[in-house]
């Protein structure tokens, strides 16, 4: 994980599968729920409309039973190269909070796909760092499923 500034998170990971398979794991709802969220989390509810302008929403259930809902809109869907979407957590009243933008790229590399995620427009470094920990754990799930 490398942090360029307080409001930008950048993560790179080699995923042991070709770009099209990794892209499909991000865009097929039935595949996404198998790896989405930090280790130990489950996805009891999800909706994905994977097209530019399409909305997405997932609810993650933590090991302690608490629910965390995040949603956004797809801005770019370029299979199997790139996804761009917005990201905002719901608060306790179901209202969307501060919105960030996530850019995910998929490049063929020896051993699989070089996945790069850039999430930007964080409110502060603490929020950026918390998301970095979440994505790192989530990518462990993705890596296991792709293998």
Account of the protein in words:
This protein is an alpha+beta fold and 147 residues long. It has three helices and eight strands, in the order E-E-H-H-E-E-E-E-E-E-H. It has helices at residues 19-27, 29-32, 125-146, and strands at residues 2-5, 8-15, 42-48, 55-61, 67-78, 82-89, 100-109, 112-120. The two termini are 21 Å apart.
List its traits.
Alpha-D-Glucose-1,6-Bisphosphate, Chain A, domain 4, 3 helices, alpha+beta, single chain
Set out the fold topology:
Layout: E1 2-5, E2 8-15, H1 19-27, H2 29-32, E3 42-48, E4 55-61, E5 67-78, E6 82-89, E7 100-109, E8 112-120, H3 125-146
Antiparallel strand pairs: 1-2, 2-8, 3-4, 4-5, 5-6, 6-7, 7-8
Envelope shape:
globular
How many domains?
A: 1
**N- to C-terminal distance:** 21 Å
Radius of gyration: 14 Å
- CATH level 1 name: Alpha Beta
Quickly give the CATH architecture.
Answer: 2-Layer Sandwich
Q: How many extended strands? A: 8
User: What is the count of helical runs?
Assistant: 3
* pLDDT < 50 stretches: none
Tell me the strand percentage band. 35-45%
Profile the largest sheet: 8 strands, antiparallel
Question: How much helix, percentage-wise, in residues?
Answer: 10-25%
């Amino acid at each position: 994980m490398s942090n360029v500034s307080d409001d930008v998170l950048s993560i790179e990971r080699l995923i042991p599968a070709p770009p099209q398979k990794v892209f499909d794991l991000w865009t097929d709802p039935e595949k996404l729920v198998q790896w989405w969220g930090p280790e130990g989390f489950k996805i009891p509810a999800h909706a994905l409309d994977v097209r530019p302008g399409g909305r997405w929403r997932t609810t993650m259930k933590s090991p302690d039973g608490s629910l965390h809902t995040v949603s956004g809109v797809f801005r770019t869907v370029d299979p199997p190269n790139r996804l761009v979407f917005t990201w905002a957590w719901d608060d306790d009243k179901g209202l969307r909070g501060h919105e960030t933008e996530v850019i995910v790229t998929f490049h063929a590399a020896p051993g699989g796909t070089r996945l790069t995620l850039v999430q930007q427009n964080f409110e502060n470094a603490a929020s950026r760092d918390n998301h970095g920990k979440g994505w790192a754990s989530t990518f462990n799930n993705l890596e296991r499923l792709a293998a």
